Amino acid sequence: MAITTHRLTFPLTAESARSLRAGDMVIMSGEIVVTAGLPTHHRLIGCLNGVEPMPMDLNGASVFHLGSYSEEKDGTLQLHYINPTTSTRFNALMPTLISGFNWHAVGGKGGLDRPCVEALRQVGGVYLSFLGGGAALHTQAIRRVIEVGWSDMLMHYRLVRLQVEDMGPVTVAIDAHGVSLYDIDAAT
Amino acid sequence: MTGIGFDTIKRVTADLYDRSLRFIPADSKVALRKADGIETNETARHTLQTMIRSAEAAEQSWRFVCSDSGVPVYVIKVGTQARFSGNVRQAIVEGFADLVASIQPPLLPHVTNPLTLERGHSGRHMPIVTFDMVDDCDFIDITCSPKALGSGRWSAMEIFSFPDLPTIEAYVLDVVRKAGSQPCPPVVVGVGIGGTFDYACKLAKEATLRPIGQSHPEAIVEAMEERLLAAVNRTGFGPMGTGGDSTATAVHVDYAAGHGFTPVAVTFNCWINRRTRARLFNDGRVEIIE
Prior knowledge:
The complex is a heterodimer.
Chain A: E1 5-10, H1 14-18, E2 25-35, H2 38-48, E3 62-73, E4 76-84, H3 94-101, E5 105-108, H4 114-123, E6 126-129, H5 135-140, E7 142-149, E8 159-174
Helix pairs in contact in A: 2-3, 3-4
Chain B: H1 6-20, H2 26-38, H3 42-61, E1 73-79, H4 88-102, E2 111-112, E3 119-120, E4 128-134, E5 139-144, H5 149-152, E6 156-161, H6 165-179, E7 187-194, H7 197-209, H8 219-233, E8 248-256, E9 261-269, E10 276-281, E11 286-288
Helix pairs in contact in B: 1-4, 2-3, 6-8
């Protein structure tokens, strides 16, 4: 079966997310939010529980497990590079975050487990697989840093909202209909 | 002759680390192209082609292939005829510190204190360096193989008692299945069998440094490598774990004689398979091997 490549605007809506099938490719333009920090995920759970205010609006956002290095130069933030980290590290926290913030697109590399697949199905969300070791390609698609949340944290733990153009293609690895490419019968 | 100098070691080890982040070894490139030629899954072929494009883009722009630059790891073979005119370990520590201060783009702070989880660019025993003696050589041979979280996390070791080959191979496959999509496949799998607890792990690490396509010289090991590679590629994880036939580009096995207790260590390199290497001679020559 031929691969379908979709050009979509981010943050992804539930409707766009539901139009995708596992195995499709997506070329992304628009606004995404990235972080590679487990402490960041714990802090977001705290926000849902009223522990502290949100550093930026993440409702309905497209949030990816991507680490980035940016520096302030001449009053603007310049991003040096960006690349995915392993999403399975966040398995335990993602269902709460996906449901709590209505995330219609999440992603990174390595996938998420079954409870996350179910949370994505319920909110109408997909998991997008970015190429690990794709820093040179991913970074080319960054147009600007829109805002940074939690600057008190390590660089790659911060929440960074980016404007991207023609990022990808990335693979729809978990679709909004409960299909995950990571469900593999590993019998040998 | 003054021997191999402090400044040379400092400069070369820093440079090996820097370069290792910006391109993939020639054998990795060949292996990815070969995998692309035989892969039956279309998404997987696409991912393999993107890997090659990513590596080429990084090399052409001299940027990092991956944002996780890992921690610096050096495997050093010291010729018995090699002579030094300064401290070796200190040169490597200072070389890394200088690199951290000057490298563009900058390195993220991945060096982690395992007790406090504080992160930075330096720490106890960092860079990680192992030294071995080799007879009849007047040089030191330095391989830089930075280790990052994605592939470093999934290594495992277990000690068996008089295991047969099927038991050993089943264990290797168990570790591969646990790693699954996570170490950025197609991976290079290194397997160390026998010796002692520590030595089996060292053998596994060094097995990942063997060029892809080079088999073990002993027939029994070569056959095992072929069986394991076929079995790993039947798991179906595929490139980046989204399905396919290309889960590993190589399985490299090495072994050492031991007692009846047999450690089996399994470790991974991601598809990039970062590796640079140089030789430093007594007469001051520096040979960049890769």
